[in-house]
Write a structure and sequence with these properties.
The protein is mainly α and 497 residues long. The chain folds into five domains: 165 residues, no CATH class; 88 residues; 74 residues, no CATH class; 77 residues, no CATH class; 61 residues. The strands form two sheets. Strands 3-4-5 form a three-stranded antiparallel β-sheet. Strands 1-2 form a two-stranded antiparallel ribbon. The longest helix is centred in the middle third of the chain and has 50 residues. It is elongated, with a radius of gyration of 60 Å.
Length: 497
């Protein structure tokens, strides 16, 4: 060793083995500078951006290469207070050995010769403050950490306060860490409960997806809107994937069972859809075959001039067409166009024929309109016999006049029927009025009522003579009833006459 080096590192009378001291950043142990080298200067108080995250707590950091320290001035209130308390929690002997005072006694934490006691203590006070900041950071972020980070963070701070190379109220710091253990335990229970609640919600959400899929699969194939329900199943599949990505994990056996049900529902739906459309294709093919045969029959009749029977034949073909069901949309439209074309040929020919006949029937219409004027003059019926005779003559001439245009048949026939009905009603009324059987019944009823009235009047007189009020009342009521009946019978007889 050179002379200059001897001046910088004077020998000491006693070599004190330097214990390991904790790194202020990580809490892990690293060698303390020996007597013949200056201690590493205390690092500055870390800013929030420099404080390690909880997931990094306890992670081993590389050991920094010791450098010749330069005393760092005290510049914070916490550090100033800690330095002020340094005499209470630490001491430096004449050889530069630094001790921390704990409840269990004094403990050597390092050596810092050649400087003042305050400077020697300041390094280890800063390390204490770093550990305290580490504990505070863990306590602050505790409610937001995962169970794994809680365990790692708690282990890191427990290790950091175990036997750190630091000077300060380490007993209080250990008590604080001990208190954090209970909070960590409570927080882990909360996390476990939250995880169970999340699992329950995830299970409920996936079960709901499965049940909705099964409800779709259970629908009647004849009532399913295949496109709409197919879209719903595809949406349910996306919901399932989203639940897998964002929801809490459920146990594999339950998830596999739910997926199996969901997959079965989708397979059932797909199988039913294939069967439905296969059957629909079969029905379409059968309907197409039937309708092609109906078209052949319709085309065979289109040139017929046997208007009545052919019209009826086309009506029957139309009923068979409706009963045949639908072919595929494309085929059905083309088949209907062919069937309708065959009908149009026949009905257009019939319409042309009817138009020609209607032109011939215009003269007949003029004759019948004149007959209607003559017939309507018979109303109201005042002379029944004359009206009946005139109407029979009009009816004979009506038949001789012949047919009228089809568009006028209902009008002229309806007007004649109205006249015929009025004459018939008048004839019926006259018969009722002169009916001898009715007259006989009316006269017999009137005679019976007259006899009953005479008898009741005598009973009433006798009751009045005896003064029996109950008999008087009964006789009077019976007499009034018979008189009322007689009045109605006589009035009916007058109406008939």
């Amino acid at each position: 060793m050179t002379e200059q080096q001897d001046k910088q590192h004077p020998p000491t009378s006693k070599q004190v083995p330097a214990p390991e001291q904790a790194s202020p950043e990580t809490g892990h142990q690293q060698p303390t500078p020996q007597r013949d080298s200056q201690p590493r200067p205390a690092p500055p108080i870390p800013t929030p951006a420099q404080i390690p995250s909880p997931s990094q707590l306890g992670r081993k950091a590389p050991v920094a290469t010791p450098v010749r320290p330069k005393p760092v001035p005290v510049d914070t209130a916490d550090e100033a207070q800690a330095i002020a308390d340094a005499q209470k929690y630490g001491k430096v002997d004449a050889e530069g050995n630094v001790f921390v005072v704990e409840q269990a006694g004094e403990r050597l934490v390092g050596q810092y010769p050649g400087v003042s006691n305050d400077e020697a203590l300041s390094l280890y006070v800063r390390r204490y403050l770093d550990i305290k900041a580490q504990v505070l950071l863990f306590e602050t972020r505790l409610p937001t950490l995962s169970a794994k980070d809680l365990d790692q963070g708690l282990a890191a701070v427990k290790e950091a306060v175990k036997e750190p190379a630091a000077v300060g109220d380490l007993d209080e710091l250990r008590t604080q860490v001990h208190g954090l253990e209970e909070r960590v335990s409570q927080r882990k229970e909360e996390i476990a409960q939250e995880r169970e609640d999340a699992k329950a919600r995830s299970l409920e959400a996936r079960t709901d997806i499965v049940e909705r899929a099964e409800a779709i699969a259970a629908l009647d194939p004849q009532k399913i809107q295949w496109r709409q329900q197919g879209e719903q199943l595809r949406s349910l599949l996306e919901e399932w994937k989203q639940a897998q990505r964002s929801g809490a994990r459920i146990d594999k056996a339950t998830e596999d069972a739910l997926w199996k049900r969901f997959s079965t529902a989708r397979s059932t739906f797909d199988r039913a859809r294939r069967q439905f459309f296969a059957e629909l294709d079969r029905k379409h093919a059968a309907a197409k075959e039937v309708k092609e045969k109906l078209i052949e029959r319709a085309e065979a009749l289109q040139d017929s001039t046997d208007w009545g029977p052919t019209t009826q034949a086309y009506r029957e073909l139309m009923e068979e067409w409706k009963a045949a069901g639908r072919a595929s949309r494309k085929d059905d439209d083309a088949l209907w166009a062919r069937f309708r074309a065959a009908q149009d040929v026949f009905f257009q020919a019939r319409q042309k024929q009817n138009a020609e006949r209607d032109a011939e029937y215009e003269k007949n219409l003029e004759v019948k309109l004149q007959l209607l004027e003559e017939a309507e003059k018979l109303l109201p019926v005042t002379d029944l016999e004359r009206a009946k005779t005139a109407l029979r003559d009009i009816q004979d001439r009506w038949e001789e006049a012949g047919r009228v245009p089809r568009s006028q048949v209902r009008n002229v026939e309806g007007r004649l029927r109205a006249v015929e009905r009025a004459v018939r009603d008048a004839d019926d009324a006259e018969w009722q009025r002169t009916n001898p059987q009715l007259q006989e019944r009316v006269e017999g009823a009137a005679a019976q009522l007259h006899a009953a009235i005479d008898s009741l009047e005598r009973k009433l007189q006798k009751a009045q003579e005896t003064g029996d009020e109950s008999k008087i009342k009964a006789a009077q009521e019976a007499l009034d009833a018979r008189k009322l009946w007689l009045e109605r019978v006589l009035k009916a007889a007058e109406e008939v006459n």
